[in-house]
Amino acid sequence: MENKTQQTTKYPGVYVDSKGNFFYQSEFGTDRFTGKRIRKKGRKDATGKPFSSAFEANKELTRLKREYHKVNSYAHYKLTYSEFMNNVYIPAYRTEVEESTFTVRKRILEKIRDRFGSLTLRAISVEDVQNFRTWLLMSKEKGGAGFSQSYASLIFGSFRQSLDMAVEMQYLEDNISKKVKAIPKSKAIVPYWTKQEFEKVISQIYIEDFYENLSFVILWIYFYTGLRVNEATALWWEDVDLIKKRMRVHHMLIIKSRNDWKRNSYTKTEGGKRIIALDDDTVKILAAWRDRQKEIGLGKENDFIFSYDGLPMIKSTIARIIARYAKLAGVKKIQAKGLRHSHASYLINEFNVSVLVLSKRMGHSSPEITLKHYAHLWNGADSVIADEMSGNVKIETAKETKIHFNGNKSLKKRR
């Protein structure tokens, strides 16, 4: 209830009592540990002198608030979104993800930072967020970003996550972006090669040439193993047992340039660490390639399989190889990761492989992930069963009815 013995002043939180004495009374925030509101009240300044005016009381209240926010790492009201991103969010995000992930996402975070950079955290409004969402989804012709829905969803989601951290660190009371509808992810369709298209591609490669031989090996291994791009580029010869016909997938390559790379001793997921069986054709191709490498002094246990000079291959080079032979073969150009999808399609359509086997071979963390990505490829995979079902049940119906019908008269009449 309002205290009838005190009056407000033009300064929020500053009052004057019935005796004409000035004092402040205000909430400073919420205690991080107890969750209780922190309230402060005072009648004297820092020197112990009673306030002689509302101005002096407000001056002391302002000083105390600033001190409180500084001590408790609370948001100061002039902190811009750009400062928050540069000094807090981006450095923190870098410690939580792989370097390869950070390299890709950094550009996204910088896009967001530049969009809201001049605004203070507390000044970002629902209208600003909605306009950002609209811009992400709008075509370039209409003044928008022209991004795909999947990419727009990724950017908008990253923006919301940044404000989540601002709330967690008590720079903000709530996440204003959550008052605007999220951008749903569209199902990404990754183009891939069918068995027939792959055959057309490899028919364009002259393997007598050393570099073209390497190109052939790269395309074959991706198509026949389903490895992730950076799992295959990380392969050393010690990872392959040509006698037991096994390939160990325990590493991934983080590469900035051919001379600046790191071979991590883990894969994208826990299920990613695996040993896969190799077919006889793949074993012969690898054995022949190792002999070719040995001719130039490579092919040792710790040498890269995908290499012509001892250094690893980079994604852009692999992409150029795919584009070159796709054009020569007259088939669609696909991404390097499209070869992984090509492998899944090949196993499903040619051999009707089970979900469990495909999941283990692809290095998914669970069969559910496999179904999420490849369920549509099993369409028609049950046609063999359908053919076998034909004629399996003997169809012989009754020559006359055996039911005494006592229902609707008009229906009975029609019968």
TrEMBL record:
Keyword 4Fe-4S attributed: no
Source species, domain of life: Bacteria
UniProt entry tagged with the keyword DNA-binding: yes
Segments forming domain Tyr recombinase: 188-387
Transmembrane segments: none
Keywords: DNA integration, DNA recombination, DNA-binding
PANTHER family given in the database record: PHAGE INTEGRASE-RELATED, PROPHAGE INTEGRASE INTD-RELATED
Family: Belongs to the 'phage' integrase family.
Name of the protein described by the UniProt record: Site-specific integrase
Native source organism of the sequence: Sporolactobacillus terrae
Lineage: Bacteria, Bacillati, Bacillota, Bacilli, Bacillales
